[in-house]
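Page 42, continued from yesterday. The earlier attempt failed because a stray header line got pasted into the input along with the sequence. Redoing it now with the clean sequence only.
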Amino acid sequence: MKIELIQLKELGDERGFLVALEVNKDIPFSIKRVYYMHGLSSVTPRGFHAHRDLRQVAICITGNCKFVMDDGISRNEYTLSNSSTGILIDKMIWHEMHDFSDDCVLMVVASDVYDESDYIRNYKQFAKMVSDDS
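This time it went through. Structure tokens are written below.
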């Protein structure tokens, strides 16, 4: 499985820091939606789905959390804990998020608007789709 961690350019000095997200430069797609999650419980995991076509980059703006990324063949865990590192969630990658710190703010930029029909919420269905494509 090739999971891409994206290093975002952080500019700053004694006045503070700035991280910019530029389409097709820092983010490998056109951005059509941005959302963020906060007030997350450290004991309640999120995600548990894949997307047929949607691509996303998740960035932990403050705090930290863990991602489980699964391509139907292998499963790996990653920790996001730096506001200048994003994780690319490509299409057909099952993802789960957990162990949110109390101060976690997780921002996601997406390649398209919300579309419920793009979600695969059943892992067995996801695994079958992946094996059928192999």
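Notes: Residues 39 and 102 are 7 Å apart (CA to CA).
Reminder to self: strip header lines before submitting.
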